[in-house]
Amino acid sequence: MARPIQDGLRYFPLDVDADYDDKVQLIEGLHGAIGFAVVIKMFMKIYSSGYFYKWEEKEQILIAKRIGIDSNSVNNIINDCVKYELFQEKLFNEYRILTSDGIQKRYFTAVGKKKKGDVVKEYLLIGEQELHEMCPLMVIKSVIPEKTVVIPELMPVIPDSGTQMKLNKIKENKIKANETIKTENKP
Question: Is 3 helix (H, G, I), strand (E, B) or coil?
Fold first, then answer.
């Protein structure tokens, strides 16, 4: 039996001087070692699931349990991570996901040219061309269905071509045929 395909990465690159990054130092300065632990745990969750992580109430509770703090503290740390641009603010506010352009570049570089999969267009922070250079087998899909725009000048509506009209004509023909058969059978 084949091994199931894994969505994310088994490991991710972490710079040896990651704690000297200004964004990480801001979080650590505000929340201490717990803030740093939350950041690393979030990177682990993001990379294990792919290039983003849905941030909902259930995830807040689970991360808080794993670290051993309350979920309000975790939520405050994540909000500060968004505020200080560790995670992308627009995608966090609009879709409640945690990601960044750095996370996406590292993820797509790690999966490389062999990985097949779907990429959500609305969550993508790197260019589509750059993505296809790193991962040519990835397919970009949208979570928002595209609306078909009808321009009346280019697509005129022909009133007699509807299916309802054809169905009515077929019924009329059957009724007329039945009536002629009935009248022919009468003495």
Answer: coil
Query: How far apart are alpha carbons 86 and 92 in whole angstroms?
Result: 11
79 membership: H or E segment, kind and range: helix 71-83
Q: Which H or E run contains 139?
A: strand 138-141
Please list the residues that pair with 120 across neighbouring strands. Answer: 141
What is the rounded CA–CA span in Å between residue 47 and residue 24? 18
- pLDDT for 104-161, tens place per residue? 999 998 888 777 888 999 999 999 999 999 888 888 888 776 654 555 555 555 555 5
Contact (CB, 8 A) for 44 and 138:
no
Residue 18: other Cβ atoms inside 10 A: 15
Between strands 97-98 and 138-141, the pairing is unpaired
**Alpha helix locations (H) across the chain?**
22-49, 57-67, 71-83, 89-95, 101-111, 128-134, 163-185
Return d(Cα 128, Cα 160) in angstroms, integer.
44
Q: What tokens appear for 10 in the block?
A: 């088994």
d(CA 73, CA 174): 74
Q: What is the tens place of the pLDDT at every residue in 39-79?
A: 999 999 998 889 999 999 999 999 999 889 999 999 999 99
pTM of this structure: 0.70
Judge contact between 14 and 46, C-beta under 8 A: no
Residue 114 corresponds to which tokens in the numbers above? Answer: 């062999």
